[in-house]
Amino acid sequence: MLSLFARIFVVTFCLCHLPITEQQYTPDWASLDSRPLPAWYDESKIGIFIHWGVFSVPSIGSEWMWWQWKGNSPSANIVAFMNKTYPADWTYADFAEQFRAEFYNPDEWADILAASGAKYVVLTSKHHEGFTLWPSKYSFNWNAMDVGPKRDLLGDLANSIRARTNITFGLYHSMFEWFHPLYLEDKQSGFKTQLFPNMKTLPELFEIVQRYKPSVIWSDGDWEAPDTYWNSTQFLAWLYNESPVKDTVVVNDRWGSGVPCHHGGYYTCSDHYNPGHLVTHKWENCFTIDKNSWGFIRTSGVNDYRSIQEILMEIVTTVSTGGNVLINIGPTSYGKIAPIFEERLRQMGSWLKVNGEAIYSSVPWKYQNDTINSNVWYTASKDGQSVYACLLVWPNSTSEISLGAPVSSASTTVSLLGSSGGPLKWRSGGASGGIVIDVSSVKIYSLASDWTWVFKLQNITPKKTTRKFKFHGKQYE
């Protein structure tokens, strides 16, 4: 049973957030899912995820270090490390004092993010540990203003992003917290009580939306309980109808067990989700540059990080099949973006400067992967005038590149983005269609791009197929 104080709080809280005008969207999935996704999100294609928190201090194992240490099935390696390195009475909360962010310069972060070519950023406002990067009044003495950095880390970055870049600012927020007493009490009841969402999760969500006005709410930590426990649809109805970001905000699909990949603004389905085929509902591939962790890990070696070639492969295959990418970095506890993350982001930015027209605001083509060349993935311009063939691997033993999906015409032209050599020679692939591009004149060392090359094809049609699909309301046949 709720205490008298809790009952008063819940009633007061709900009354304070009742819409003051007639709702456009009602708190049910049929209504919420009917909301069109704001166009800026699909056009952006590239986002940066930032995992930062108290877990950045121990920086071992992963951002789940606390659970790996004190959870239901502790990691023997983590337990041994803690026993060897810290006093017997050390607690996870003791790490917060060491989370000082003494070299944190949000202007520097903003400049690095701008150089990456990303169009939006999603910062962890609070991970499963419960520590908030903003001075939340619902997280007393477990936030970045009360302990550790003694500053509003979230607000400082939001201000720098908005002042120095055109990047859209968004926030990740964990619905649950591993060891919060109210959550554990609700869990013990089989989630028949709602102490935690009413006293913690929902107040925090309202707080960050009203204070920081993020255009992305990236929800997580929902999977143990149904959306009815989290009151997810009620929050989303308020977000879409009454919030200060109601016209621009986008949300993902992690709002309760059974909800991912079925409801929400765009689908994430699972971490590192990249199905390799067209998904007609808007989706996002969130993946890490450090292959083993979302947070910064001190023990990672060079082979633990994705190469720029691997990152570009994720971008091309994801955008080709209708998705966005959200590429994760993990800053250090002292507030620096590690050089290897910065290098990858700047490399990506240099590639996008040359090849961005094949990525930003693009749409899927009739074919995503070429019919005979598995190293080629396609995108198209919105007006249908240009098709982009993205080549992941340059052939070593030939001066020709064969494509099976395009059908040429007398006015077909082929050019290579980043090349100053003008249109390339090509010939028809034969009666069955396709084209063969002559690249004998291309000097790879002189190209503006060192990885993943993009051929711009104009005045072509796709090879005939019986496949039909819709993407964002447009019919493809």
Write a compact overview of the structure shown:
This protein is an alpha/beta fold and 477 residues long. The chain is built from 13 helices and 18 strands.
What features would you describe in this structure?
Belongs to the glycosyl hydrolase 29 family. The protein is of the alpha/beta class and 477 residues long. The chain is built from 13 helices and 18 strands. A 7-stranded parallel beta sheet has the order 5-4-3-2-1-7-6. Strand 2 (120-126), helix 7 (153-164) and strand 3 form a beta-alpha-beta unit. The chain is globular and about 75 Å long.
In percent, how helical is the residue content? 25-40%
Count every helix, treating DSSP H or I runs of 4 or more residues as helices: 13
Termini separation: 58 Å
Strand count: 18
Overall pLDDT score: 92
Globally, the shape reads globular
The strand order across the widest sheet is 5-4-3-2-1-7-6
Uncertain parts: 1-13
Percentage of residues in strands: 15-25%
The total number of structural domains is 2
Text of the CATH class of the largest domain: Alpha Beta
Structural class: alpha/beta
Family: Belongs to the glycosyl hydrolase 29 family.
Keywords: Glycoprotein, Glycosidase, Hydrolase, Signal
Enzyme class: hydrolase
Function: Alpha-L-fucosidase is responsible for hydrolyzing the alpha-1,6-linked fucose joined to the reducing-end N-acetylglucosamine of the carbohydrate moieties of glycoproteins.
